[in-house]
């Protein structure tokens, strides 16, 4: 017998995004709409910029969201700085490295890639050697590769790029707000974040930040005033209007030059989630993500399932486990969501059907959820005929929580 359960608020979302959002963020989204040139709206924009700088750990003047999902942020940065023929070096270690490659390619870049097997990351020296060989204008890389659960070290690479006058652009979509990302300390020229991951807001905004080195290129490419002249485009113009950072940055200054109509409710949500980050404190928040990862991993190991990849470069906010031999990956996820209301994720490309990805991000990263996902996974695996160490997983997680 089955009854349709329409109450989706009973879902426990343990994927690498979208994740659950704090009720305060949901309430913020129901704030009445105000016009984008209303003085009150300007306060919201200024708050959002200040709070973004805090989250990005930067003193950059430019720190604001792009309307659209995270890839809109990536595309805005790349299409605004890449001119046809520019050399762009992209180290790829999973699905989102290919996304950077595709976007750079569409911008007409002369794309150079280097690839690692899924599950590994690059030794910074390998990339540095390639930079010397290729001599690119831009290096762009993913920080936390959600498809493989791996974290690329960035600090050394940032220093090297700065010393060699190469622009360093980082996709920190999956990490910002849950894992350390030090924009200024690590010499990153432009960083793109994502809301529906560790920031804990719905999907639909992409906070970005960039420094003067990036801005210099934007200003060179900006020619004639926005859309008020019939010959406003020349051969160096940024090909996208919607994602043209030279125009968007003017909107995000005290001049508030009109560009798009701001996605008001999404901005309310973003501001509230950034406030939550500030209130919790970035450091504490990063520690919280590591802490709950500890409980999750202890539980999974006690259950007897196998973790994917080495521990050294594991993302604390994504935990990947191998699908046991003979088990249908998708039907396990289906039982978990239909019977327990607990969602975990499958995988892409070479890992599809072979692993499950468990996210522990933002508001979803809390004790209730960790215990639920462990319990639901164990019961479901037993139901699907997998031999696990019955009862050990929840005990291990419980002990972790009680003892710490
Ligand atoms: C989720 C994700 C993206 C894409 O985000 P969208 O919001 O779906 O556009 C890009 N990069 C990384 C590392 C991600 O995890």
TrEMBL record:
* Gene3D superfamilies, A to Z: Aspartate Aminotransferase, domain 1, Type I PLP-dependent aspartate aminotransferase-like (Major domain)
For this UniProt record, give its keywords in alphabetical order, as a comma-separated list.
Answer: Aminotransferase, Pyridoxal phosphate, Transferase
Question: Which organism is the protein's source?
Answer: Virgibacillus necropolis
Pfam families (alphabetical): Aminotran_5
Asked whether the keyword Transferase is assigned, the reply is yes
What residues bind substrate, as annotated?
A: 357
Q: List the protein's name.
A: Aminotransferase
- GO MF term set: alanine-glyoxylate transaminase activity; L-serine-pyruvate transaminase activity
Protein biosynthesis keyword on record: no
Q: Tell me, what is an example of a GO biological process annotation in this record? A: glycine biosynthetic process, by transamination of glyoxylate
């Amino acid at each position: 017998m089955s009854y349709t359960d329409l109450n989706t608020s009973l879902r426990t979302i343990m994927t690498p995004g979208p994740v659950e959002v704090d009720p305060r963020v949901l309430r913020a989204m129901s704030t009445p709409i105000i016009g984008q040139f209303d003085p009150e709206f300007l306060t919201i924009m200024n708050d959002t910029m200040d709070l973004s700088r805090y989250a990005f750990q930067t003193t950059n003047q430019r720190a604001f969201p792009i309307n659209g999902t995270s890839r809109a942020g990536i595309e805005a940065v790349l299409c605004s700085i890449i001119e046809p023929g520019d050399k762009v070096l992209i180290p790829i270690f999973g699905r989102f490295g290919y996304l950077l490659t595709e976007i750079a390619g569409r911008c007409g870049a002369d794309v150079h890639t280097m690839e690692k097997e899924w599950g590994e990351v690059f030794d910074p020296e390998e990339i540095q050697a390639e930079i010397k060989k290729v001599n690119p204008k831009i290096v762009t890389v993913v920080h936390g590769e959600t498809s493989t659960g791996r974290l690329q070290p960035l600090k050394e690479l940032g220093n090297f790029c700065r010393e060699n006058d190469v622009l360093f652009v980082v996709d920190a979509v999956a990490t910002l707000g849950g894992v350390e990302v030090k924009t200024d300390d690590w010499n990153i020229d432009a960083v793109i974040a994502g809301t529906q991951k560790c920031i804990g807001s719905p999907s639909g905004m992409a906070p970005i930040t960039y420094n003067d080195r990036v801005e210099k290129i934007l200003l060179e490419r900006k020619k004639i005033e926005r859309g008020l002249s019939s010959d406003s485009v020349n051969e160096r113009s940024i090909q996208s209007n919607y994602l043209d950072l030279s125009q968007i940055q003017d909107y995000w200054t005290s001049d508030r030059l009109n560009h798009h109509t701001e996605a008001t409710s999404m901005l309310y949500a973003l501001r509230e989630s950034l406030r939550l980050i500030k209130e919790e404190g970035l450091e504490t928040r990063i520690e919280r993500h590591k802490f709950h990862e500890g409980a999750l991993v202890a539980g999974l190991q006690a259950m007897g399932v196998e973790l994917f990849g080495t521990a050294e470069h594991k993302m604390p906010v994504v935990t990947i486990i191998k699908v046991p031999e003979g088990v249908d990956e998708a039907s396990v996820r289906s039982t978990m969501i239909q019977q327990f209301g607990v969602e975990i994720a499958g995988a892409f490309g070479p890992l599809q059907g072979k692993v499950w990805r468990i996210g522990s991000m933002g508001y979803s990263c809390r004790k209730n959820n960790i215990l639920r996902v462990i319990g639901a996974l164990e019961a479901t695996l037993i139901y699907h005929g997998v031999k696990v160490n019955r009862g050990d997983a929840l005990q291990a997680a419980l002990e972790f929580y009680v003892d710490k």
